[in-house]
Amino acid sequence: MECDGINCGYKDAQVLYHVRITVKEGEAVVVFGSNGSGKTTLLKVLSGIIKPWSGIVRFRGRDITKLSPHDRVKLGIAFASDTRNLFLSMSVEENLILGAYTRKKNVKEGLEMVYHYFPDLASQRKKLAGELSGGFQRMLSIGRAIMSKPLLLMIDELSLGLSPKMVDKLGQALMSINRERGIAMLVVEQEVYLAGSMCRRGYVFDLGRVVAQGDVQKLLKEDTVRRIYMGV
Ligand SMILES: Nc1ncnc2c1ncn2[C@@H]1O[C@H](COP(=O)(O)OP(=O)(O)OP(=O)(O)O)[C@@H](O)[C@H]1O
């Protein structure tokens, strides 16, 4: 996945300026940045939820800038935004099955994969999504995204509001999924240690622009990054 020259915003308020990022096949990449710097907006542009004012989005060499979110899912781009799109009065398993809407023939295989990496979802498969704790709902939203068997999984604010134990669990599972299944990841994450262990490369956003990029461990040592991102 790559995007280049992305300008975008809401009504006439510009949020992203000339953004260029790439995620190679199988790579795990993190996006850092202060509140309101446009990270979520970028994921929405890449998943097709909002159209950029200008610039191009490519996936495996193909220009997908004008494709709908649905068509992007079919190509292998999944977005686990937050838990708001779960169906709370449906069971865990029914929610997962809905995630496989682009590949109905392989539902069983998808469920097996999700339950393998998230055994907590297997043991709660019959529970209603609305009865799960916030952490397990987040797990379910990620599991549902994986049901489409993506080539690239985008996750917004992975650790937001979760207990350290749950953050660790999700982080470990996602690292295994990335390594063992070769699913590339683009993660917006404030928790630097999680981001540092999951992703080798990262981008730092400030006021809608990419202000630094490269090796995550090096980025975390840079003064500007620490100042902008960690408020040090
Ligand atoms: N639907 C919307 N309509 C109008 N403005 C919006 C909308 N969504 C976001 N914005 C504005 O766009 C800017 C960037 O928001 P965005 O959510 O992309 O940033 P972010 O880096 O993800 O921030 P956070 O970490 O706080 O989620 C902010 O100023 C925000 O107020």
From TrEMBL:
Record-annotated ABC transporter domain positions: 1-232
Sorted UniProt keywords: Amino-acid transport, ATP-binding, Nucleotide-binding, Transport
Any GO BP annotation: L-amino acid transport
InterPro entries hit by this protein: AAA+_ATPase, ABC_transporter-like_ATP-bd, BCAA_Transport_ATP-bd_LivF, P-loop_NTPase
GO terms for MF: ATP binding; ATP hydrolysis activity; branched-chain amino acid transmembrane transporter activity
Pfam families, sorted: ABC_tran
PROSITE patterns: ABC_TRANSPORTER_2 (PS50893)
Taxonomy, superkingdom: Bacteria
Coiled-coil stretches noted in the UniProt entry, renumbered to this chain: none
Family the UniProt entry places it in: Belongs to the ABC transporter superfamily.
Protein name per the record: ABC-type branched-chain amino acid transport system ATPase component
